[in-house]
Amino acid sequence: MKIWVKWLILGIISVAFGIFVLAKPVAASIAVTTLAGIMFVLSGGFQIWAGLSEEGTMAKVLGIALGVLMILLGGSLLFHPLEGVISLALLVGILFGASGVSRLITAFQMRETPFFWMMLISGGISVLLAGYVFANFSALALSLLGILLGIELLMNGASLIALAFFLRTAKGAVRDKLEQRFTK
Description:
The chain is an all-alpha fold. It contains seven helices and no strands. The radius of gyration is 21 Å and the shape is globular. The chain starts with a helix and ends with a helix. 21% of the residues are buried.
């Protein structure tokens, strides 16, 4: 099977899952929270294991303590998924706001460049999005993570489909180089 066909299939699957997730955003939000909980528990277990193998007493105690905190956070997300969804949605809103403010500050530092407006608009949209999330938090909290995951899957699928068609039409050295890079 040609490499471009593989990317096309992967892109179509990603778009299909994006549509599925957008159809059930609350269920997807709970699934994301559950997966995050599992990952925190696993990471915490590995952190404790790594902490036990540390040389110094302080490093060992800090490593184990961090692992225990990660396991507690993961357990909280697993045993209280709705509260976890709300906490993660709040964190997403905060990250949107912080990212937007930082891009606005960067934009004003780039005032003399041609990229000023792109950075300014990008930061402004993130700040507005954070404001929208917080203004409608009670209505958005349960579905926000699912909506964001669905949008990400759709955008990822679209870019993979575009990559597939690019690889299909790419000529000569460019296509050969890309195929070599992705088939290793």
